[in-house]
Design a protein that fits this description.
The protein is α+β, with helices and mostly antiparallel strands. The termini are far apart.
Length: 948
């Protein structure tokens, strides 16, 4: 029988229907009593006890899971899991004391309470979360108490439960909670489980008196600092595309921080009690409840799906969890994108509400001002600042009706805050939340409102902070409804790191930093060019709108340009500025597409780009917009290699616009390059220099700077003197984050493919390739590679030596790349495999005057480039140059090719064959079949590809 002292446990926070179906205390105790009668109380009974409890745990978990998967909520699931654990632990405690270590008259020192702490103490237990227990003693431990605690813990561990525990006296708890905020928080949310209850009541009483009293401000500051540190560790953004449901910004831990503070200061156990204390409004408490239930539901699905304690919502689980929560494909949007958008909106709600709540507490605590005292005093002497009052160091409304009566002030508030470098009072943010419905068409079309907004965006002060505040408060989405459509809009791939709205705000901040010169060392060209820009307002508006049409089911560049044409006049831009913004939005991807996917040494590439851009002003605008856009995609998305390609395209385009790059101009550039090389080769005999200058075709001399041409000349002279059939030279260029691999070898069909295979087998990713056949029949191929494992330059003595040996063995036929890669290829991770990248082949005969340009898209994997180039070689195509790029899980490779006669490929049957073979090469060797090849898509005219 259960001990009388455990017969009246604390009531559950809300009634759980049919609790006995989860676990029956009476039935379980009967089973344990029967085991004692059959096996006695010795060691023989222990495995039977564990088996009995494990059966109850397994049945209870199955019942809770079944209820949840039949449509239960996350809150119900965590409460039911908590109820199951409560009953199991209480039953085990009673059994242990009644049968294993019985005592007719336990002394005072042998009496103890069991207390739940942590999330378990709050009454929340996710399916695979830890159970935290506190064994609360009157003073020091006794042998019998130690035996009981040890027995119980080992049984719980044998059941497979993850149990964290502490054994402390009341004095220990008080002393340690004063010194450690983590322990203080655990005591704060502790919950009685089992025992006489006297010790637990004493702990709560002393905790309130000796620890909590008078320490509210200290606790609030500690928890806010803890929250900020946690956010920094996880990226300090609630809009990362693989969020942490528990510890991420806008996650469950932020809600718990609110409840900790509320409980500490107001003795409130939930959001409803905070309403009663006038800390939260009823609608705010309701938003919290909805947010908490959504997050708990997603987290429980995540635990059940992965079969372990897991909090990170990674790409490989998002689709399945979205489907389980009822999100289906709809109106051109994937179900997973709809699910993740809801998640980000919930995270935004959590962020809004916790910030308002914590800021209100901070304001109440009368903390000293953070701002310059003299400046603040000067501001305080004024009765108001442009229609608002200064409350402490924050801008506040005059009264609660201000935004309802004057909705334009919802825009003006952020303008005044930006102008005066002031924070915004939580009361003003609350007032905005209650008044958002008043921000309608009348305000959107108000010239003054639009003037204020445009000044915030394009003024001298940092626009990112002002716009971010507006976005957090929901004002930006109401004032610019098209922007509201991309708030929390995710992009389901591994390249983009943030939601569309977060990416846009980052891009605006980067643009401001470029203009202020803060990124001059990293972005020297953009930092110089931006000060030559005439259409400055157009540039800032274009950055705001460049992705505004994403998620609408069409080309977001084309659709975004239409949005710009309608919105810009409303904002107050002139017709000329509107045209510029619309053009920038329409072609905001053009510069990166050309720089990263076209041969910049091909004269037609630069000329086609200039024909699109048309003016130096647009060239400058597009460069800065492109750089800000790429830099804002996410960490490591911008690198020196991309900077080099953009700079090269910019300079070539500028040269054409200024009258350069004519046929005569090209000849002059070649002559100038060769003259500079003569000076560089001072150690050569004149006859040696003359001979070397006959080796390169015109394109070669324009493809490299003088230093590189000099290195090539010395490499070739050395190879020819020693009559070496193969020479490999490597040079690490940390400035561009690449390693340059120069190969001088006897030219033969399929050489590029073999070299690509050798580099892949060595663990090197090719990011660019320049391929030349010299007039002496030798090939001079220059590969820019990065380390496939860690990114950045491929370096290290052992790695570079092995790379040279691998190239030599492959070219000698001693090593087959296909076999080597087959043994080295690791299966795709589930995170990569979850993304479907349709294999695509585009053939363009208008992009170059001399070559057929072939672009292939597919899911990236080790050896993909080798498979593709091998297919091209087997088709008897000559690869003249290649542009290699990877965007997350997607590989985009472009090849300039000729047929066996050195001509473009034009025959329809040959083009169809090329497409079919390449689609087969792009297919996943692990089993994903290639798509059926429709009729070949051959571009006869050359628009700039703007697809993202």
């Amino acid at each position: 029988m259960l001990s009388p002292r455990a017969a009246a446990p604390a009531a559950p926070p809300r009634e759980i229907p049919n609790r006995r179906a989860i676990i029956s205390k009476a039935k379980l105790m009967e089973e344990l009593d029967a085991l004692i009668e059959e096996h006695g109380t010795g060691d023989k009974v222990r495995p039977h006890v564990i088996a009995c409890l494990r059966g109850a745990l397994t049945r209870g978990r199955a019942e809770v899971r079944d209820r949840f998967e039949q449509g239960g909520s996350g809150e119900e699931c965590v409460r039911q899991n908590c109820y199951l654990a409560d009953r199991l632990i209480r039953t085990l405690a009673a059994f242990t004391l009644n049968h294993i270590f019985p005592s007719a008259n336990p002394t005072l020192g042998e009496q103890f309470d069991i207390v739940a702490t942590g999330g378990y103490g709050r009454g929340e237990l996710a399916p695979f979360s830890d159970i935290d227990l506190l064994f609360l003693l009157p003073y020091k431990r006794t042998p019998r108490v130690e035996q009981v605690v040890e027995y119980m813990l080992y049984v719980l561990w044998d059941l497979g439960l993850k149990v964290g525990h502490a054994v402390r006296s009341v004095d220990d708890c008080i002393r340690q909670s004063k010194a450690d905020v983590t322990i203080r928080t655990a005591i704060l949310e502790s919950r009685y489980l089992w025992g006489p209850r006297k010790l637990f009541q004493e702990l709560k009483k002393r905790f309130d008196k000796d620890v909590v009293a008078g320490s509210g401000q200290e606790f609030v500051e500690a928890k806010l600092a803890e929250r900020d540190g946690r956010h920094q560790k996880l990226g300090d953004s609630r809009y990362v595309l693989e969020p942490n449901l528990k510890d991420g910004k806008g996650g469950l831990r932020d809600l718990q921080t609110l409840f900790w503070i509320g409980k500490y200061l107001y003795r409130a156990d939930d959001a409803d009690e905070l309403v009663g204390k006038h800390v939260l409004l009823p609608e705010e408490a309701q938003r919290f409840a909805k947010a908490q239930n959504f997050l708990w539901t997603a987290r429980c699905h995540l635990h059940y799906l992965t079969g372990r304690m897991e909090d990170r919502l990674t790409f490989d689980v998002q689709s399945e969890i979205g489907a389980r929560m009822g999100y289906t494909d709809h109106a051109g949007t994937k179900g997973v994108e709809r699910f993740m958008k809801h998640y980000f909106l919930v995270a935004k709600d959590v962020g809004d509400l916790t910030r308002i709540f914590c800021a209100a507490l901070e304001a109440e605590s009368k903390r000293p001002p953070k701002f310059n005292i003299l400046r603040l005093a000067a501001l305080t002497r004024r009765k108001d600042i442009d229609g608002f009052v200064l409350d402490g160091e924050r801008l506040n409304v005059r009264d609660d009706k201000q935004f309802r009566e004057q909705p334009i002030d919802m825009i003006r508030l952020f303008h005044v805050a930006q102008l005066n470098d002031l924070d915004i009072h939580p009361n003003a943010l609350r007032s905005i939340t209650r008044s958002l419905s008043a921000l309608g068409p009348k305000v959107r079309n108000d010239p003054e409102a639009n003037r204020l907004f445009l000044e915030m965006l394009t003024g001298p002060k940092d626009p990112e902070l002002a716009l971010r505040r507006m976005n957090e408060a929901g004002v930006l989405a109401r004032f610019v409804p098209d922007f509201g459509r991309v708030v929390a809009q995710m992009q389901y791939d591994m390249y983009h790191v943030f939601t569309v709205d977060e990416h846009t705000l980052f891009a605006i901040g980067i643009l401001h930093k470029i203009e202020q010169g803060e990124l001059a060392d990293e972005l020297p060209l953009s930092s110089e060019v931006i000060h030559k820009v005439v259409s400055r307002r157009a540039l800032y508006v274009a950055v705001l709108l460049h992705d505004i049409a994403k998620g609408r089911g069409g080309d977001h560049s084309v659709l975004g340009a239409r949005v710009a044409e309608k919105l810009c006049p409303r904002l107050g831009l002139t017709a000329e500025e509107t045209e510029t913004v619309a053009w920038l939005v329409r072609w905001h991807l053009a510069m990166s597409q050309v720089a990263f996917k076209r041969d910049l040494e091909d004269e037609k590439t630069a000329r086609d780009f200039v024909a699109l851009v048309q003016s130096p002003e647009r060239l400058r605008l597009l460069l800065v917009l492109t750089v800000a856009d790429i830099r804002a995609v996410g960490p490591q998305r911008w690198n020196n290699w991309k900077a080099t390609l953009l700079r090269e395209l910019y300079n070539r385009s500028e040269e054409i616009m200024s009258g350069g790059l004519s046929v005569a101009g090209r000849e002059r550039r070649i002559q100038a390059a060769q003259a500079a090389l003569r000076e560089e080769l001072a150690d050569f005999e004149p006859a040696e220099t003359d001979t070397h200058l006959t080796l390169g075709y015109p394109a070669y001399w324009l493809s490299f700077d003088t230093d590189t041409l000099g290195r090539h000349a010395r490499l070739i002279r050395s190879a020819e003197r020693d009559q070496r059939p193969l020479t490999v030279e490597t040079r690490v260029d940390r400035g561009r984050a690449i390693t340059e691999v120069t190969i001088y070898a006897t030219d033969h069909h399929g050489l590029f493919s073999r070299l690509a295979g050798a580099l892949a087998a060595s663990g090197a990713d090719i990011v660019d390739a320049k391929i030349f056949t010299m007039t002496n029949g030798m090939a001079l191929d220059v590969f820019s590679v990065q380390d496939a494992a860690v990114g950045g330059a491929f370096e290290g003595g052992d790695k570079l030596a092995k790379l040279s040996v691998t190239i030599e063995r492959v070219l000698a036929g001693q090593l087959k790349p296909l076999q080597e890669l087959a043994t080295r290829r690791s299966p795709m991770t589930s995170r990569t495999r979850v993304f479907h990248v349709p294999p695509r082949v585009l053939i363009d005969n208008a992009a170059s005057t001399t070559h057929t340009v072939i672009e292939v898209n597919g899911r990236d994997r080790a050896g993909l480039l080798y498979d593709v180039t091998r297919a091209l070689s087997n088709l008897s195509l000559q690869i003249s140059s290649a542009k290699i790029a990877t965007y997350g899980e997607k590989a985009i490779d472009v090849f300039y090719v000729k047929d066996v006669f050195g001509l473009k490929v034009t025959h329809d049957s040959k083009l169809a064959q090329i497409r079919e073979r390449l689609l087969h090469a792009l297919a996943d060797p692990a089993g994903e079949p290639p798509l059926q090849a429709p009729a070949p898509a051959v571009r006869r005219s050359r628009p700039v590809d703007a697809a993202d």
